[in-house]
């Protein structure tokens, strides 16, 4: 089969001909119908994260059809449309048994620790397959497995409930999903904070209240719009020190700030004024859970989560075109939410 693979850090991916992967008794072989190109893949290519092995096939946002079943597989059948949960875990340890499998010490990630979806076929444990309804195109189903899933997990960690208010810092793929999901969970007002006008315009189409942080102080504007109360939930999805501090500062009494964006810098907190005096909370959100994905897919099927504008480009399984998309992501070029269709 054909696969586009990372051969060496800092070098372009290469198209290779490799064997179709074998499957075990509890695995399935999936014919890849769509594989999303994520910003993480650009980081992997650049060598910013250790890989399980090399050469390795990248791609952790995958949807396709079941081609072959292991002897003990009962949850799917040949020909089923599926999207794939990208974290493969043992299923038996303390964290797996308590529903926190992202902390499994044996966890492996598609396209990072094992071959991913930039290929014609992929092998994966059957328990990682989520049924993909006919109403959702493969391209959109693939992208659900990363940004939208992470947004849902963050909001679940926030304990957002009906009647509360939320502020989403960062209106990229994660943020746009979070805006819609917060609405679905009953938020009466959702504030979208960003510095790019086109993103804020799109956020307003999803009934968010846009706040242009290039023109106003985001925290002061949130305080003004909430009549001084602040928000119940703030979700930071950028990974900047400034926006993390703003998310915390935008909280009202008993508010919860969830940190999703990746940042290596320390942040400054006024312990009493921002946390103790309000009984506020700072919560970390790490990835997402297999158990959350069926609900996410169902909301997409019902149109509660609009995925129709997620994918901006479809490209073939072509090394040059994939490398160009990864180059664009490195440069933060707009409109490069690309999906590979082999």
Question: Which short descriptors sum up this protein?
Answer:
single chain, Quinone Oxidoreductase, Chain A, domain 1, Rossmann fold, 2 domains, seven-stranded mixed sheet, 29% helix, globular
Could you tell me how far the N terminus lies from the C terminus, measured between alpha carbons in angstroms?
Answer: 11 Å
Which geometry do the CA atoms define? globular
Individual helix count: 10
**SSE string, helices as H and strands as E:** EEEHEEEEHEEEHEHEHEHEHEHEHEHE
**Would you tell me the overall average pLDDT?**
94
**Major sheet: size, sense and barrel closure?**
7 strands, mixed
Please identify, by name, the CATH architecture of the largest domain. Answer: Alpha-Beta Complex
User: Uncertain runs with pLDDT below 50, 5 residues or more?
Assistant: none
Report the strand count: 18
Query: In percent, how helical is the residue content?
Result: 25-40%
What name goes with the CATH superfamily of the largest domain? Medium-chain alcohol dehydrogenases, catalytic domain
Determine Rg (CA atoms, Å): 20 Å
Portion of residues in beta strands equals 25-35%
What is the oligomer described by this structure?
A: single chain
The domain tally reads: 2
| CATH class call of the largest domain | Alpha Beta
Structural class: alpha/beta
Task: Enter the CATH topology name of the largest domain.
Answer: Quinone Oxidoreductase, Chain A, domain 1
